[in-house]
Amino acid sequence: MATDISKLRNIGIIAHIDAGKTTVTERMLYLSGAKHRVGRVDHGTTDTDDDPEEQERGITIFSACVKYRWKDFDINLLDTPGHVDFTAEVERCLRVLDGAVTVFSAREGVEAQSETVWRQADRYEVPRIVFINKMDREGANFESVLNDIGPRLGGNPVAIELPVGQGPPHVSDPFRGVIDLIDMKMLEFDPETEGKQVNETEVPDELRDDAMLWREQMLDAVYDLSEDAAALALEDKEVPREMIVSALRAGVLDRKIQVVLCGSALHGIGVQPLMTAVGNFLPSPLDRPPVEGVDPKDREKTLVRRPDPKEPFCGLVFKILPAKTGDNYWIRVYSGQLKQNSRVQCPNRDKKENIAQIWQIHATKKDRDGQVETVGAGDIACVIGPRFAITGDTVCDTQNAIELPSIKFAETVISMAIESESTGDKKKLEETLDMLRRQDPTFRAVENEETGQTLISGMGELHLEVIQHRLTRDFGLNVKFYKPRVNYRETIGGSADVVGVCNRQLGGQQMFARLSVKVSALEESSAPVQVFDRLPPETPLSNTVRQAAMDEIRERAAGGGLLAGFPLSGVRIEVYAAEAAEEGSDEVAFRIAAGDAFDRGLEAAGPVLLEPVMRVELTTPEEYMGELVGDLQQRRAIIAATESRGQMTVITAHAPLKELFGYSGSVRSLSQGRAGSSMEPLNYQPAPQADADSFTM
Ligand SMILES: Nc1nc2c(ncn2[C@@H]2O[C@H](COP(=O)(O)OP(=O)(O)OP(=O)(O)O)[C@@H](O)[C@H]2O)c(=O)[nH]1
């Protein structure tokens, strides 16, 4: 177990699909001494695991995070899927990792999806290093990828390696190793040992001038980052190696630069220097800012926790995996120590949780996975025992509670009603949905007691398809699925000034209240509803009556819009005048007037139905462009960008989700399987009038 936090690295590998994330990961685990497990990670074939220990314990190794040692560093490598349809998975990893290796393909370079993950990493302020993979591929071009990182991603790459040759064996100057620009050594990786054996030699004469030029470029970056190094350079003195490394490290940690390395993970070239670079240039938990949260008892109060074992314990649940022996809770510990057989607080659920067992999952056989008694600040571990927390929840010391910001996941955009075919299955379905919901924070399931159906919601058609398969195939449930529909929202088109009135006999008494309300549309139609009490101080209302009127408006707004009760957004409601009578102007009267004002205001401001719009990315050979664009236009899509990348054209379009059901299948058939598509929620936009009318007819 790691005790020296300064040597601990919590990292993820982020990349476009196919850039080689899995291959790089596998190679790192292999080189650090792990058993080679190709194919398991991305194919999810853990159910065929032949490791009896894994089966017995029901823990799926390599699913969330593995620990390995490289030199004197302890690395926690988090698994991040590259597929944009599951960006939530990437979000949760970015939240708990300290640094990342971004992998690009030397052939395809910076792809659209690389931009998505790069920007996600920017948002979480994650320091990065870059690995340009697939240097052995035909058409590999190190310099062109390097030069794209600035303009396309806003990065500032600094090469610390230079490839020796590029491309496959049959080209005149194939890729065969790298030159380390810091130590000015040539590194070659023996294919006989799958690259395990590294031969270090002097830089050959014919490459020396070129390498010196590249080293100068690297040193220019060092001078910008370190005054001491710049001063030495001015005096024409050699900058010591340690100073170069520490200046580059500081630059990476401050997110001013990204050091760049290259290789071919598939052929075991260049991976050891990458592993060393993870230790040298990526942050330890001590290098990251302390975490901030709020005091659950006084949410105005900000609390801070440092990665110090002496601080009170706090951690974040970032992944939950079901297991026969009790769900596996993956926790990043931010401060203090988490102890086995202890109880911790989960402020998000207002519950106490048991910590029955703590496991560390090692990648190497010699370190055997093991149960540990404690896990310290900065580290990541798998815990068995909790029952209430869901992904994104905080767990903390019961006496020193703190609630960390939860992981933000996008709202669901698609729903489907489901129903168990037999009453016997009903309970099992409920339990399974509950388990899936805890595992997957972007999945919702709400039971409708009137119809007995459950409405499940997710991030897209593919997401619900995956859930559907899991329910029927993995859990053997007999479930009926209805047609999916998009999740609409409601807003208003304009503004209105209205008066809500209550003037009626109720229980033999005359009730009276009038409330003047201004309703207006917010600029952002998806912004939460704002309700303001702007009644002047001289208003003749008691605090309770006034509060009742405001509560009524807030409750009505939370109940949804006028068209069909879909969630309401983008609306501001200001209550600015009230009139009461001598008698009969109590809470009930003002609640009635407030409800009336709400309805009139929304009606007068013009209710608008909003539909989810997706950002679609389509990659196709030129010849299918016409047909695919025609198909997109029929789906009410707006083409936002068209770009040619090598032999492929990449189209970015914005289209309503309602028109995209079955889209990936249609792309495949229109292009004979040659084009591919991916989509992610973009925003909400007004739906066609006919759709809105269908709810009011
Ligand atoms: N020639 C060559 N092929 C590579 C290299 N690295 C990976 N590949 C191949 O590229 C393909 C994609 O590699 P993966 O490691 O699965 O890529 P990934 O980024 O993990 O892809 P996803 O899991 O789909 O996100 C596979 O066929 C690999 O064998 C490399 O260095 N050289």
From TrEMBL:
GO terms for molecular function: GTP binding; GTPase activity; translation elongation factor activity. Residues 672-697 are annotated as: Disordered. One of its GO terms (biological process) is ribosome disassembly. Keywords: Elongation factor, GTP-binding, Nucleotide-binding, Protein biosynthesis. Residues 6-286 form the Tr-type G domain. SMART domains: EFG_C (SM00838), EFG_IV (SM00889). Belongs to the TRAFAC class translation factor GTPase superfamily. Classic translation factor GTPase family. EF-G/EF-2 subfamily. Catalyzes the GTP-dependent ribosomal translocation step during translation elongation. During this step, the ribosome changes from the pre-translocational (PRE) to the post-translocational (POST) state as the newly formed A-site-bound peptidyl-tRNA and P-site-bound deacylated tRNA move to the P and E sites, respectively. Catalyzes the coordinated movement of the two tRNA molecules, the mRNA and conformational changes in the ribosome. PANTHER family: RIBOSOME-RELEASING FACTOR 2, MITOCHONDRIAL, TRANSLATION ELONGATION FACTOR G-RELATED. This is Elongation factor G. It comes from Rubripirellula lacrimiformis. The lineage of its organism: Bacteria, Pseudomonadati, Planctomycetota, Planctomycetia, Pirellulales.
